[in-house]
Amino acid sequence: MNLTDRVVVVTGGAGGIGAALVRRFVAEGAAAVVVADLAADAARAVAESAGPQAHGVGLDVTDEDQVRALVDDTERQYGRIDLFCANAGVATGGGIEVDDAGWDRAWRVNVLSHVYAARAVLPAMLARGGGHLLMTCSAAGVLTAVGDAAYTATKHASVGFAEWLAITYRDRGVRVHALCPQGVDTPMLADGLAAGHLGAKVIAASGVVLTPDQVADAVIAGLAEERFLILPHPEVADYARRRAEDPDGWQAGLRKLVRRLTT
Question: Annotated Gene Ontology MF terms (predicted)?
C-alpha cells in the first residue's frame, strides 16, 4: 500500500504509537488523516501539529454508534476510507485479581472496538473491492504479557479476529494487518513502570524498547509489502517459534525472569 493521496483513520491517535502513525501518514502524502481519541483535545492537538491534512475528533471506541458515525462522516467528507487503524488499547497491570469492570474494559477496548471498526468499514471496502485494516494487537497477542492476564487474553483474541478477517476477506480485496510490537516507549509503558507493574518491568528488562516512530517505520514497510503480521521487533517471530516448539521450556524461561524481577 502506498499512502499517497489515501484517506486514513487512526483511533487512539492522541499519543504513543497512534500519534506517530498520524505524523508518518501525513509525511507519506496522505490526502486526509482523521485522528480519533477519547481525549478529543489531545487528538486535535496531534492533528494540528501533524499538518493540514489531519484533523482530530473525539471518539469512544467502545461505543459502536460512535464508531459507525465516525466512519460515515469520514466517507461522506472524503468519499472513502482507504486505511482504518484500530489502534486504541488498554492494559490492566494485574492478574486474576482484576475486577470484572477491568476485564470488561480490556475486552471492549482491545477486542470489541476492532469488531465495531470492521463492521463499519467493511461494507464500503468490499463494494469498492479494496481497503486496508490495521489492528494494533501487541506481541502479547502471539506471546504472553507477563503480569497482565486481561491484556494477554484480549490481545490473543484480537490477533485471532484479525486472522479470521484476513482469511475471510483477502480474496475480496481487503488487506488486514496485525501490528504486534513488544516494548515501545509510550505512556502505557511509562505508567506501568510508575505503578510497578510486572509486565512493564519485563519489557524494560528486555533492553529493546522502540520509539513510536520506529514502530511507524515498521508499519509503512508492512503496508508496502502487504504483510499480515507486522513485527517491529523481529525477534518476536523467533520467540513465537520457540514458544510453539517447546512451550514448557518457554514458560520455564519466563518463570525464571519473573523470579529475578520479583525477588
Answer: oxidoreductase activity
